[in-house]
Amino acid sequence: MAYEIVAEQIRIEAAAGAPPMGAYLARPAEPGDHPVVLVGAELWGVTEDIRKTVRDVAALGFVAVAPDLYYRAAEEGTAAGMAQSPENRTRAFALLDGFARDEVEADLRAAVAHARQYAGASTRTAMIGFSLGGHIAYFAATRLELDAVVAYFPGSLTTSGTALSRPAPLAEDTPAIARVGTRVLLFFAGRDHVIGAAEREEVVAGLASAGVPHEVVVYPEAQHAFFFPGHPPYDKESAEDSWRRAGAFLKGA
After folding, report:
1. Is residue 21 classed as helix, strand or coil in its secondary structure?
2. What is the dihedral of CA 211, 213, 214, 215, to 10 degrees?
3. Would you call the peptide bond into 167 cis, given omega within 30 degrees of 0 as the criterion?
4. 182 CB contacts (<8 Å, ≥6 apart)?
5. Tens digit of pLDDT for each residue in 17-62?
6. Which of 77, 85, 167, 226 sits most deeply, having the most CB atoms within 10 A of its CB?
7. What's the CA gap between 176 and 139, in Å, rounded?
8. What is the pLDDT of residue 194?
9. Which pLDDT band, with edges at 50, 70 and 90, does 15 fall under?
10. Which of 201, 219, 95 is CA-nearest to residue 157?
11. What's the pLDDT tens digit per position in 71-91?
């Protein structure tokens, strides 16, 4: 069943002394018991690829919201994302240097609280994220009370120095996921130039050792960022199969 949805660009008063956080939200048009799903963006921010994913998540029966987590550090607006270019890659990594774990946690919680004001939003919460967003989704599983997390090709989990793997690798906090009881689904690409097999295996071993309920799917011929159409790494078969699995996982199947 696909729900009829409504979608809009919103602003969230997330942090005292900071400008409002931009976000994109979509939800079923009719009230119901609709869990909230955070959507974590790639390095490029809340682009049209991410906004379409927000709408697709909402069509499954969720109140979906993608927050612009760059808003605290950006001198220019980033609520609409950035085009993929070498210049914007440099800009995005500079923005990542402004990330702090407690601030990102507060921003994610603010996005959830805002989404719950919409008709039909329930107290159940999950997150889905892609690349950097997958990294953030993994972090969210260590801090928020989430029922489920779906992380696509989440990088920089086992080494320190990038995004939220500062001051220590984010994977070191994996036991916190077990304490909450969050279910985790990870999608990896077999030909990923960002995440090698050794890193992937280390993450999976950590989940198993901590007793986190998890599933892992590896697409042997796929590359990093295989999910979004219109970009060179796109792999239609892997993307469609992963989306079916992700939808079922978010619904608790």
Report:
1. strand
2. 130
3. yes
4. 141, 146, 147, 148, 149, 212
5. 888 999 999 999 988 889 999 999 999 999 999 999 999 999 999 9
6. 226
7. 10
8. 95
9. confident
10. 201
11. 988 766 676 788 999 999 999
User: Token digits for 167?
Assistant: 């001051």
pLDDT at 53: 98
Overall pTM > 0.85: yes
Distance between CA atoms of 200 and 196, rounded to whole angstroms?
A: 6
d(CA 24, CA 50): 9
What are phi and psi for residue 7, nearest 5 degrees? -140, 150
Summarised one tens digit per residue, pLDDT across range 214-246 is 999 999 999 999 999 999 999 999 999 999 999
The pair of three-digit structure tokens given for residue 166, joined into one six-digit string: 């500062």
Stretch (H or E) spanning 133: helix 132-143
Where residue 120 falls (left for φ over 0; alpha for ψ -120 to 50; beta otherwise) is: left
Structure-token pair, residue 177: 């996921």
Rounded average pLDDT over 12-21: 87
DSSP 65-108: EEE-TTTTT-SS--TT---SSHHHHHHHHHHHTT--HHHHHHHH
